[in-house]
Amino acid sequence: MNASSPVAPSSARATQSVRAGYALFILTLINLVNYLDRYIIAVALPEIQKDFGINDAQSGLLGTVFIIVFMLASPLGGFLGDRIPRRLLVAGGVILWSLATGASGLASSFTALLLARAVIGIGEAGYGAVAPSIISDLYPREQRTRMLSYFYIAIPVGSAMGYGLGGWLTQTYSWHAAFFAGGVPGLLLGTMAFFMPEPRRGAMDGPDAAVKLPFMEGLKGLGRNMAFWATTAGYTLMTFSIGGLAFWMPTYLVRERHLWLEHPGRVGLVFGAITAVAGLTGTVAGGWLGDRMDRKRAGGGLWLSGIGLLLAAPCMYLAVNLQDTTLTFAAIGVAQFLIFLNSGPINAAIVNCVPPAFRAFAMGLNVLCIHMLGDAISPTLIGQIADMASLHTAIAINAVPVLLGGLALLLGAKLFRESVPRAQQG
After folding, report:
1. Which residue ranges traverse the bilayer (predicted)?
2. CA nearest 80: which of 28, 128, 117?
3. Which of 145, 261, 269, 298 is the most exposed place for a label (fewest CB within 10 A)?
4. Is the CB of residue 375 less than 8 Å from the CB of residue 62?
5. What CA–CA distance (Å, rounded) separates 22 from 135?
């Protein structure tokens, strides 16, 4: 008996590790499809404009309507995610948005396409707010930044696939075909999510972690959590800028830089490849460095994120002011690397500075803020500035929010040391 007693704990840890790895794998694949669906429309936009005869401001609404619905539904998704099995929200949301992506390809009018994009926002809200809280309950605090960075690797890879797949299918077949192809993987993954492990809330935060919390009490505590709000402010400024740039950059490269006018889909392939490489390396580096910085001092990961944004701002400005095409793409790649450094650290900071019982709602509220004041308005604003001046001017001034976002994250890093103990105490 004594010889065999150590085996049981070891076997249990191995089983837990496999279950956690499976859930992280499924959630990451879903996040990849999430961003693939979002960015197909960016590279297909020139053809959609031709078919429906819409201007830049109207085109920006395709991004804005999706984000508005997504952000408004996210707090509700977070509220439910703190109270019902989260895998059900994940599975149902993925299946809904995948059906709506396929329906986008059936749209025969601008209004129908707007409606389909709105439904995609509802589906994604059921998933986006709860996935980080699931991961935080699968892995201990000292591993969360790294594990969340693996989850957020899907952002650059999925975005790149959206640009690449959307560009190739639009060029080879039509923009309708691009949306049809984008909807299929999510239907499969949504079904798999029904069988995903559901960890206990606060499972990795110790016996004193608050796993049950009255909503109004949690809301008051969140209102006083200045580290959360400083982090959200920095995240919002960054999201405003990169959301608009991601939507408009392929169109800018074709229209104003006159790249591959005969084959505009190639812009999506090149831009997507740069996004994939820079985003993948930046996200992995951010997860590894963020864990190291957090072990050295509270808020270390946020400090890394703030420095990354401060360095990214001049690179974004140079990207549209350098005349050489190679240097332009190099500046884009460096800026993306520096921005994606913060994917793991900034989200780890959010889940770590709030009680486990309130994490899903906190993430949902964060989603509301970063999109309501961020990329919900930036595609349309950039389109309006482009109509009044030029797309070059509209994109160039978007380096400013990134700079301000970096300063806000540095402030959040200073505040983080005080807020974490309060969050752990509930």
Report:
1. 21-41, 61-81, 88-108, 114-135, 147-169, 175-195, 226-249, 269-289, 301-320, 326-344, 394-416
2. 128
3. 261
4. no
5. 11
